[in-house]
Fold these 3 entries.
Entry 1:
Amino acid sequence: MQVTRDFSHYVKEAGPGLQHIDLAVEGVHCAGCMAKIERGLSAMPDVTLARVNLTNRRVALEWKEGSLDPARFIDRLAELGYKAYPFETASAEATEVAESRFLLRCLGVAAFATMNVMMLSIPVWSGNVSDMLPEQRDFFHWLSALIALPAAAYAGQPFFRSAWRALSNKTTNMDVPISIGVCLALGMSVVETIHHAEHAYFDAAIMLLTFLLVGRFLDQNMRRRTRAVAGNLAALKAETAAKFVSPGEISQVPVAAIHPGDIVLLRPGERCAVDGTVIEGRSEIDQSLITGETLYVTAERGTPVYAGSMNVSGTLRVRVSAASEATLLAEITRLLDNALQARSRYMRLADRASRLYAPVVHAAALLTVLGWVFWGASWHDAIVTGVAVLIITCPCALGLAIPTVQTVASGAMFKSGVLLNSGDAIERLAEADHVIFDKTGTLTLPDLEVVNASGIPADVFKLAGQLALSSHHPVAAAVAQAAGARSPILSAVEEAGQGVWATVDGVEIRLGRPSFCGAEQLVKDADLDPEASVVAFSKGAERFIISVRQGLRPDAKAVIAALQARKIGVEILSGDREAAVTAAARALGVVEWRAGVTPADKIARIEALKARGMKVLMVGDGMNDAPSLAAAHVSMSPISAAHLSQATADLVFLGKPLGPVVAAIDFSRKALHLMRQNLWLAIGYNFLAVPIAISGIVTPLIAAAAMSGSSILVMLNALRARNVARRV
């Protein structure tokens, strides 16, 4: 009977003519594994993307639509020595927990065995071995073997399994020399004990495994912290929602069955499953993990709500604007995935070095053995020295040097409201010495606010707010929200491009353009805010002006000051009118600014700064900013930006504050420093350790301690990427 495999359920559209699937892959734990998988899958015809996420052991694949059966990817991974299956959050989490527990058990067994074997080694190593009776020495050696051999067989499984898979597929990875070194040390020790030799190396082999497992556990723990962020986002996703199928009937349906324009009911204590706008009800919502706003937000008619937000108190009716994979939460999740999969320039360098490691170190160990024999050493001494070379040159430190910093830094940046969208964004951002800000939607908030509400009689403003509820214009929405209006005037009529009007108690009221409300002269005579847009309200013969504008982000001035304090140049390039840009520049303390610029003007300015040797960070949000974002050395956009700008930007920041811009620069500079530091630590360690091991000075035990110490050192050094002052 032929068994077919249908994975079409897991395949998604990745763009015009492209398909995408995520696969969970077992046994991926180092940069060498990542490079091997990516090379193997990229070599398949019609594959356009093969990206391994080491943090959650997931591979993202894209290929030309209809050209490949997804089952072929699983077969190809099996040929490379890795078991794979379609990625599902629940199964991935279960696998992660099982792997973590197994690794911890291996570490416990290895540590227990190390302590006992070291205690048995003390009588042998502390005194004059030649003075001991052979029976005494052999007794301690055999007792050590009785503990070390079964312990190594169990605790070494993470390395032995990986090495066997690689060798079975006629390839090598970093676990191959580790396994060879451990097995040689154990095998030689057994032979030495049988022949009543003075020394055995059971302690070195089991200690090596202990140190390696400590390093691997620390690495996994750091990655788990970053995975926890993604897990928190996944937990925010509601799988179903209460949809109105008729005015008086609701049905609990899957999110996939909800479409823009539908109306859903959001009850207290529920998480919103969609993006939308409140059309009825009043409540408080917690959207801290979505927008970065830590305080509860009052939700009422006209208030936008996002998937993942928690409804705290009242019941809301929400008109859906986006559902499923089109929501803001889904966008943040995709950006976080990009951050975890990002590959920096230094990481690619470490990957190439790690790929060269296995053949080089095997050759070095073999040449060491042959060289010592050639110079008259016994085969025993030569093999001991070769084992020390195999152990001490383990590239774990090199393989961990960059990925650990990238993982820690990207997790810390996310907590500060920044997501990476490009592999080498950290490195390029660290080099930035000049920042160009767009004004509208970047230095200012995307939402409009009424600036002169206090100058309008309360009863008049309330009536204007009620009338505004009958309009779909964003300015009207700002008026309605500022007035706290809840009940619309049902008889209102909206005239496209002009405004909305109604008759209340025999009096006509209007809200809209000054000409629509007969308030042109009032506008001409008024001393208006240069940054504000004007809407008029008329009630019979009375005329009022309502000024609406985008306010500056709450910490914009502090951010500009913080950038200037870091010796970073700041300027504003905006397509807005000169009066508005002038007012914003003065309020923020920016000396260099230009108004009325086109996208071509922005690009020309960036190119001029580049010609002077400057590294430009462009921060913008509009669709017209996309070309300048692409032209800059590095770029950032707020999460509220147009999708084209988000896709072009190297980094995206969440929430209303502008502070993440400074935090991102600080984190990137610290991370780049640590990347370079770790790379030199790893290279310097091997530069010093290899000649010493080849010279025969280092025993396998000392080699194990030195190698593991270097790995732990680079990981602990990477943790410093979290310790950056983030306040501005």
Note: The chain has five domains: 8-87, 95-230+342-408+673-722, 237-323, 422-445+553-669, 446-552.
Entry 2:
Amino acid sequence: MTTQNDKELIPLINQAGLLASQGFYAKAQALLAPAMEKYDPHPHLWHNWAQILADSGNIIEAEKWFCQCVDRWSTFLPPYETLIHLVRNRLGPRPHPEALFVLAILYNNQGNAIEATGDYPQACASYRQSLSFNEKYANAWSNLSNSLRPMGLVSEAEDCARKAIAINQTHVGAWNNLGCALTNLGQIPEAEQCFAEVLRLEPNHPMARHNAGSGRMFNLLFIQSLENADILKAHKEWGKQFAHRFIEKKNQTQTVGTKVRVGFISGDFRVHAMSLFVVPLLQHLDRDRFEIFCYANQRRFDGVSAFIRSLPLTWRETITLSDEDCKELIRGDRLDLLLDLSGHTEGHRAAMLALRPAPLIAGWLGYMASTGHPAIDYRITDRWTDPEPESALNHTEKIAYLKGSQFVYRPEIQAPSVNSTPALANGYVTFGSLNNVRKLTISTLKTWSDLLHRLPNSRLILQAKLFVDLGTRGYFRGVFEAFGIDFNRIELRSYSLNNQHLMTYHEIDIALDPYPYGGGATSCDALWMGVPLVTLAGNRSVGRMGVSILNALGYPQWIAKDHLEYIQIAQDLASDPVRLNSIRLGLRVQLGASPLRDEAGFAKDFGQTLLLMVNGVPE
């Protein structure tokens, strides 16, 4: 937000910069000197003052101001480059090791500032520079680990975190980063030990508390060997931490004749798979019946965030608010119902929800399972994803059912056109999956290997961000070869940005859904690109998203009840490339005419469900 000081200072700073660029250093300093006295510390003002001092040859004074600037505003990038240059020049050809450590610290801190912008490759470059001056600098190893992981380089991230711990066994950041890397690599038990070590060293470490708590709940959903009762029990145990909180008894409010005030809270109002489903609802909910509030619990915003803000709704940013302040903010909006779109995923406000910020709280979409949270009253879903009556046994929340599917899909505007099925030209069928690596369980890979054995000429393309990682690629190669599959038949691709990943579907004839955790947006993307989807109907919500999507589309015949039927469905589709091509060329039109693309109809169904919850659902 631009302050009044900014409005006065920025033109002044720019004018001084122009004078300095023309060599009028004394005039530039004379222009800024009164501002340095008059105004509170300001990063751009202090940086320009230091830069003018440096350009005019006053190196000692310039370095002092640059240091003060980065000390006060550690994530403010502009001062670092010149400060590092000045320090390197001052050290000379044979610097003392302590002086080199100063450079290591500066490069490390520059990396932190760059990392805050989301430029992970450049941040890694700064951390590596830091380590070139001091290879025993644990902070730089830990931070390098943290920036490698979002790039998919999780094996190297693991190695860097371990190097940091070898240097400093009490480095909480390194232990947490090691746990995160191990989680990405599927080594959950060891990851949990790392998070436990963090909490032993620093009991209130926020990320480790999430990873050991909500993060662990989320991880359980991927484990096929767990019974649903065991997963629910773990979630209930997690929820007991809020038993001491004073959760006010909800007061049902009759809203007949008035607008229902509905809030949505999420850490993902941005470019995210969830936004493909949420944005159409926010756009189409009837404003004559509902007043909408969005509580964005996130640090980064983008074009999707801006579009949501442009809708007729009230936008609030809550990431910096304490639980108490966030609760008071939401209570001040006098909601009838608050919808939590995070569950146990990153950006949740579980502790705040325990303070009962609204008379009714419901979960939807962001977490495809019961949360176990005692303050969440309902979970909104559909009867395909959570069939009656057995699903009620797997929830602490009451289930509020939509009439149709809980998914409404808005494809990317720049999605490529549908092409002919590649098998016609290739002479063989190519299967594919663009799902997250964590969903590709041993059971899934075994089923896919059995399918490849049935069709010896077929191929398989797997695309995910972590396939940039050599360790991950090696693991998958080992699994497929253990199942007797020549790895030359498998292509592993790293994830590509924007809509370019959709181009991969031009090379895939049939999409394969993993289990026990299936695809949501990924499945809809495949269908929009004309690629049939084979799914297995699991016994938990995360394994039945494809059931809901395919029933809404009108293709229940692509839903298997077990892995043998899964293989048979895929084999039958692959047996007739001409028929497969006919399906492909018509699938986008069918999806476009289906309930999955009926945004207004979905919003009406969703709105009716909201009204039933607010006005009282019969027990």
Note: The mean pLDDT is 92.
Entry 3:
Amino acid sequence: MNGGPACTHSAVPPVSPPSQEGWRLLAWVAAVFSLLLGIGMAAGYWQVKTDEPLSSPRLKQLKLALREKPADENLKQQIRQLDLQLRQRYFRHLARTQAGVWLLLGGVAVFLYSVGRVRRGQKRLPVLTARTTPGAHSERMAALGRWSVAGAGAAVGMLLFGLSFGITSALPEKTAEIDRLLGGDAAAGAVAATPDAASPDELRRNWPRFLGINASFASCSNTPVSWDAATGEGILWKVPAPSAGFNSPIVWGDRVYFTGGKPGQLEVFCVDANTGQVAWRQAVANVPGSPPEPLDIPESTGYTAPSVATDGRRVYAIFANGDTAGFSLDGRLLWTRAFGALKNPYGHATSLITWQDRLLVQLDQGESEEGKSKLYALEGRSGRILWQRPRKVGGSWTTPMAVEVAGKAQVIALAVPWVISYSAVDGTELWRVDCLNGEVTPSPICVNGLVIAISPSDKMLAIRPDGQGDVTASHVVWSAEDNIPDVTSPASNGELIFTVTTSGLLTCFDARNGSKVWEHELDEDCHASPAIAGGRMYVFGQKGTAFVLEAGREYKELGRVPMGDSFHASPALVNDRIYLRGVSNLWCLGSGPSKLARQP
């Protein structure tokens, strides 16, 4: 035997190789890292979940308060700031989550790989060793492995820390920029700054939409009782209609607005309210996204059945092909938007309305199960969508109503089977009533704080508008079922409600309880809705007869004038004048020197 140290099979427990110790420690670090990261991600998820931008209790509370006080600028500013903070926090969370997922996957992968290496190294083999204890070299290698793994873990932890706090929001800092980024359908976009629109007093003095803003009841008191189409007495002017169309005129200041035309030639017209001469006419053409082919629409409706609307700063028009446009009052095109071909067997006839500086567009079409119907609120200045709400209804031809009632700004929209109220601020549904049948054409009105809605040829209902949810069983105040119109809308002076059917059956109802006061046959078909001013009611027939009646509890005819025209459009009553759109002519009735002799 040589004199070297003897090598034997040692009986002492084997010392783990440095590599085994290192893999075991790395597995522990990876496991702890993954566990802590998972707990942190879960905590972050639940924290953001309780304060999501669209479900934040605080944001909902502020928005409810704004519905009660729609003009409160302080509330609007609070909502915009809170919404911006919530959305920035939310997008920071999304970015952190994305980074955390990759880190978690990496930690789990390291853990599994380390565990595998440890298991492979656990097979016990005889260890050839000297009789002396393990050397300092082995201890240094094990310590080096532990420090290396700890250093790697610390580096990964620092990286996670940096990702969590160094990631910036995906949203811009300025509220105006976030509104543009979110396409306007955010809570921040739902509360505009001071409205760029006319005051309520200005709106009442004019006729800014179909039926005016007060149930076809005009603020003027000296509208004419008689006139003569043959001699021109009582007719301020009469001019040939510059274009075909069944929409009703609106009046703002010394201008009258309406639309006309046919496929390929859709126009908005403005005429001087004092002379009837065209002040400007603008085509709505080449709208991006407009249907390339003409729609199959009956001539009895045409492309221009919807009436225009104004907020006192701009005028808005929509056509049956879905093309929509905004103009300045002097005729400058501001914007266009295409809603696409509207699926409606009779053509689109729902008129536009405004609320503050917003344009409200009700697009009911197709069948309810198709999900094509929507209600939109557009920014008047730009046509940008501020909010949109789906409506699970089919096609309708009625015009919605925007009204401040029951302490809230409400948009009332009708389509089978629902009368639905939405918040004008953000489109949230407030209440609904199941009561409509048939082809809904008559538009709702508001009388003494009650919403009056008509189910064609079926019933007229008065609804208390202070409910929430489905209020069919609790908020219908009264219902009337005699002589209910099928096309025209009702008119009211606050005490009485007047309706006229297509066949010319005129009926007076008591606004308090819906009881019938009187009825009378006019012996002429009517498509134009009646209007009231100064205690008098005006009804214009399809064969050109004008009926002037007392708006009272007894039927009393004050005058009957043949006009030699045909009327489908409803009148506008402003400044003691009556503005009419006939099939052949435009008319202005009132006192003063007639300009008929100067007309072509």
Note: The chain has two domains: 13-123+139-182, 200-598.
